[in-house]
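Repro:
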Amino acid sequence: MRNNGGLSRGLKLFAHPWRWYLLALVMIGLDIATKVWAVEQFRYGPPLQIIPGLLQFTYAENYGAAFSFLADAGGWQRWFFGAVALGFSVMISIWLWRLPANRRWEPLALALILSGALGNLWDRMVLGYVRDFISVYYGSWSFPVFNVADMAISVGAAMLVIELLFFSDRDSAGDKSPREKDAEV
């Protein structure tokens, strides 16, 4: 009989919670790669229409927070938002570490939020601004330009809200709600 000890040790790298940190790392890489691509393609060139009248790739630099909040505050916001993102990332990392191994939805949401926070933190600390390139618009209305990190944060936050609204009564040990446990008795 063959010993699969090496294989099982290797697979432990992907065991909880490392798999969620690995997912966050992959998403950070995707975010940075798409930002580099956007800078190369659109910084000095015209936008690329993906769906005319609705979606285009362009280039924008955001010196503030979400929706350019405090973008013209004089520079202190770079360090303030960086410290907030770093503190928030530490909190999310600890939360992710403490989750039971059988959870899927919540750690996925947290990994997405973590990747988005760290992806934008990288830009903010290295460049002093966040690179955005996805533009959604219709007629004269336009949504603020965003990036992959912003999408990860938004999707992760929506997943946490769904968890809170629809699944918060589930027991983390058995993932059964009190009603389901009562029905078994």
